[in-house]
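Fig. S4 source data, part A: sequence.
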Amino acid sequence: MKIHEKYLKNILFAVFVLALFSPIIVKSLNLFNEKPLGGVSIASEKPILNDSTWFNGSFQTQKEIHLNENIGLRKTLIRLNNQIDFTLFNKAESDKIIVGKDNFIFEMNYIDATTGNDYIGDDNITNFGTQTQQAMQILADMSIKFLVVFTPGKATFFKEKIPAKYFTNGIKPKTNYSELIKVCNAQNINYIDFNSWFLKMKDTASYPLFPKAGIHWSYYGMYLCADSLINKIEKDIGKNLPKLVLNNIEVSPEQRDTEYDLGDLMNLLYPIETYELGYPIFSYQQENKYRPKVLVIGDSFYWNMYYSGIPTNVFNSLDFLYYNSQYYNDGSNIAKYDINTVDYLEFISEFEYVIIMQTDGGLNNFGFGFFDKFITATQRELIPDGIRQYMDKILNDSDWKRHIEDKAIEKGLSFDDMLFLDAQYMYENENQH
């Protein structure tokens, strides 16, 4: 009996040692490749050992971080921990991701938008309405059409799937979405409301409009909105645009596009059980059609439309200003430049149709700063010719322009603001002598 106990202890000890050193063994021998974790992360660089880094302690600190990030089985163990939390406690590791009823996944900001917890107040809503109407009028004077597109929010669409604890204080009487719709109606602002449209056809749509484990509209929902958006633009400009021709709809349990984006961010061992989605296959009727030059200033809801091929086949060009900051126009996910580095008014004036496309989860920052930036830029047209001449000189001198860009970053200002201030300084300094 004692011999068996001795063997058992030895076996248990060996198993313990093997488990303890298994991450090192897996990493050293490269036994298998782990699936990368979802989300954005910046990998730490391997620290450099020298006298300076050793004695100031930075090598030891960075080495510990680097080892922790690259130890064997790290990704698998993270997924295991996340899976336990999800399966046993119905929770996600990220505070921003909420597991709803029947394992429907949400982001917290969309729930706040639905309950009204992120409401910015009547004064701010009124100010947004005034600015929007003013910007639309200025654009009209420039022969540019303007449209606000309210894209749907998943929490608003699946309100019944939100955990009850988020309704303990009830639903507030005002949300940014509801009040902005009122303002748009009162100010005669040109808009299209896909949020209410989705709710109206929630029980009658041929295929799901939202996925279970993604935050954005389904590919099918995007297709319906793209078709409606094309018809709206066509009506506004009075010209015939290319048409989407639906050839087929593939029904698949595979979540192909952005339909599993939140599921990917949860980093689970096993995928969340979802439902089948419809994937439209379409072509274009383009002969003798007009293709307008359209700018979309929007959030992440535009990405699957951007990549779908629809804008490049219907519009004159592919122009997307992500959060009114990073400019994309070649179909890639690499920004061409930051909009703060160019003349904003000159940039906007190149288009004949400008769209603000925004979901309810971000309406507490309606327009992403477009209205302030655009109105300010147009007001600068009234500045003295002398200052304007200096602004032109700066823009036409690559080295001077680069200096202004660096200075703007250093002072935390936009390029436009820094350009104006430097030109004003040069003009006033010249006229003091």
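Fig. S4 source data, part B ends here. The first helix runs from residue 2 to 29.
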